[in-house]
């Protein structure tokens, strides 16, 4: 985007969300560091990770600077005895409406309990590991479970629609899994929502290429976009995107990224400042 075009574009507020908090120490350390730098303004936690209870106290200490959400997990085995689906099986069963609601409800309730036990309240927002929160059956159970707790303030929900002019097939494929249906259901039930999602790529980029992609997202994303990232200080050999996590941390902590935000007229803010209290 040229300087002239950027100057003509209205200032926008974005939420920069670090997914997978509590996955391991690398994800915990990177997310906390980026929150303290003001580069990340939300994080969603894998509360069924064995690291969650210990890490929750560290996250509480910075919860005045970033929204803290639930990263609903139905697909990742994080500890022995976890009840999950393989992602392809989950997708097929959900699209055919064959997912057993009782099993989904048990997992949703267990994870909501784990969050509230640590924080004493519901999460500021909910999204999903592998975007599962938007799937048929899952989205209905999630909304029912939150409403049944009679919250004084509903969490905002992350909507996985790409920007209108984003032609990336992975981003559009994720949105087609149920983003529009979740948006409609959420608004009917009174939940605030984000507007669009950026940050989708194939985890195969080097630092310069990722930064170039960030600049494209900054050009495409609207007011109220969520920029999803997965930073970590360590690249675990068992993690298929471990190298990408370290690369993302390097970009997000750098001055070139901060300058890109400023140049695009984007300010990173908490989602509660943009979405809460009204549908987006």
Can you tell me about this structure?
The chain has 280 residues and is α/β, with parallel strands linked by helices. The protein has one domain (3-273): Alpha-Beta Barrel (TIM Barrel). It is 43% helix and 13% strand. It has 11 helices and 8 strands. The chain has helices at 3-8, 25-37, 52-60, 87-95, 101-119, 138-148, 169-175, 179-189, 207-220, 242-252, 255-264, and strands at residues 12-21, 42-45, 67-72, 125-128, 156-157, 196-198, 225-229, 266-268. Strands 1, 2, 3, 4, 5, 6, 7 and 8 form an 8-stranded parallel β-sheet that branches. The radius of gyration is 18 Å and the shape is globular. The two termini are 26 Å apart.
Anisotropy-based shape: globular
Report the CATH C-level class: Alpha Beta
Low-confidence stretches: none
Provide the structure class: alpha/beta
Summed over residues and divided by their number, the pLDDT gives a mean of: 94
DSSP strand tally: 8
If you compute it from the alpha carbons, what radius of gyration comes out, rounded to the nearest whole angstrom?
18 Å
Name the helicity range: 40-55%
- Beta-strand residue percentage: 5-15%
What is the helix tally?
A: 11
What sequence of helices (H) and strands (E) makes up the elements? HEHEHEHHEHEHHEHEHHE
At CATH level 2, the architecture is Alpha-Beta Barrel
């Amino acid at each position: 985007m040229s300087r002239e075009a950027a100057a003509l574009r209205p200032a926008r507020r974005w939420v920069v969300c670090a997914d997978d908090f509590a996955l391991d120490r690398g994800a915990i350390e990177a997310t906390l560091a980026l929150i303290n730098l003001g580069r990340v303004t939300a994080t969603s936690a894998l509360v069924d990770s064995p690291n969650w209870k210990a890490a929750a106290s560290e996250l509480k200490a910075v919860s005045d600077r970033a929204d803290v959400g639930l990263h609903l997990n139905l697909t990742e085995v994080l500890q022995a005895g976890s009840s999950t689906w393989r992602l392809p099986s989950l997708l097929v069963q959900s699209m055919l409406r064959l997912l057993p609601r009782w099993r989904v409800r048990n997992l949703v309730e267990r994870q909501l309990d784990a969050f509230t036990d640590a924080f004493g309240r519901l999460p500021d927002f909910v999204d999903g590991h592998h975007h599962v929160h938007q799937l048929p059956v899952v989205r209905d159970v999630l909304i029912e479970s939150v409403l049944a707790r009679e919250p004084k303030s509903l969490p905002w929900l992350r909507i996985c629609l790409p920007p209108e002019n984003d032609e990336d097939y992975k981003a559009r494929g994720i949105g087609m899994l149920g983003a529009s249906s979740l948006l409609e259901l959420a608004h009917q039930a009174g939940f605030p929502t984000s507007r669009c999602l950026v940050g989708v790529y194939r985890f195969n980029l080097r630092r310069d290429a990722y930064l170039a992609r960030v600049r494209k997202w900054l050009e495409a994303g609207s007011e109220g976009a969520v920029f999803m990232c997965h930073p970590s200080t360590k690249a675990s050999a068992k993690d298929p995107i471990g190298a990408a996590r370290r690369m993302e941390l390097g970009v997000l902590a750098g001055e070139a990224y901060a300058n890109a935000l400023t140049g695009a007229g984007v300010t990173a803010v908490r989602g509660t400042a943009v979405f809460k209290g009204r549908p987006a």
